[in-house]
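During the no-cost extension, the postdoctoral fellow (Dr. R.K.) reprocessed legacy sequence entries with the updated structure-token encoder. One reprocessed record is reproduced below for audit purposes.
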Amino acid sequence: MGSSKTSQGGWRENKWIRGAIPALLLHCSIGTVYCWSIFSQEIADYIGFSKAATEWAFSFAIFFLGMSAAFLGNSVEKNIHRSSLIGTICFALGMFLTGFFIKYGGDHKGSVVALVGIYVSYGFIMGIGLGTGYLSPVKTLMLWFPDQKGLATGLSVAGFGAAKAIASPIMTSMLTGLSVYSADGVSDGSGVWKMFMILAAIYFVMMFIGHLLLKKPAGWVEPQKTEKGKGMIDVIKSKPILNYVGIWVMFYLNITCGLALISQEKAIVKCIGLVGMAGVISTVSAIFNAGGRLGFSAWADYMKDRNTIYKMIFIISIALTALTIVTGGIANGEGNVLLIVIVLALIFMVNAGYGGGFSNVPTLLSDHYGMSNISAIHGLTLSAWAIAGLTGNQMATFIVNHFGTWVDHDGAKVNPEGYQIVLYVTCALYVVALLCSLFLVRKSGKAAENK
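Re-encoded structure tokens follow.
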């Protein structure tokens, strides 16, 4: 049985300095992966490729985030310091090399080497940093805050969500401020690769400090050291296998639906006549994303069964999606205050549910299967994130490109009918997720070692 009781004397055993602050330093750094849309067009223009070609770098990053978390979960379980250092080095190195290959692509327009280099750097190397950096603080926080595990993990994962809101204006400023302008005011676009190299150094320092501070409570004894022969698969099999399948599927569907809507967010905002407020709405949605991570997980601490949170997320998402579909809010929203409110409520609440789904996964798993292998089981479950990273955006893009009609709206091409069809699909998927939550995932009855 593990213990999380710690001495109250000195910073070396302070749960905020050893748990919360390093978690925020790590997650506020790696969470900037979601800033991709801010500079993706600039990268495409600078290296001479289409935006669609460069978009795969982000999809690969999310894929390898999930896959590295799944395969390195046991490594994180055994040594958080080694894993947090791996996360720090891979994330910063991947970001620096991304800048290098963007610069190379600028000097050699249309170079396949540059494009593949960006895929490998931003997608594979940074992806490994994302997966290990994401997992490393989570179990540690749950050990420091045994009676408020949801609040603790929510605080950390909220940092991942808040990173976009914090970094977006900084990156936007750097893109313009670091570029060189000709006499007639034309930018050379060089700010994009300079930004990556500068931020690589900044994030390395932040994450390395987090790595140095991160520490498990002194009194904690790993349960698996006294439970020989009980591996991760054995732990999962301690409950009906459909229980874990239900958790994995509802997590996957929540991410897929979230990414599908978020990827079309800017275009939807244009449809309802708020193109001038797109930046503000993006920031607010990022705040809802972070708030959902913290709020839903902290709220779950007061519930007998954390799965109740997922039922709430899916019911709210289904209701707002259906309301937007029935009212035709996207196509008819411009100039109609009520419809605009409905569409914005959908965008904000899907972001909140997307974030809340993330932050509740580790605590839900710990309630069902105990703390002994939580990093490994959490890592395996994040494979759902990896697959959703390849299916969510692409599903919505496919629908919008193959269904509906493109129209000119204030100088921008949009497809309101296509976005409506995306909502039909996500609404159906949310219903499937709710059914998994209701009928496959059992009440946790919290594992004995968490009591």
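The first strand starts at residue 407 and ends at 409. The chain has 17 helices and two strands. The remaining legacy entries will be reprocessed before the final report is submitted.
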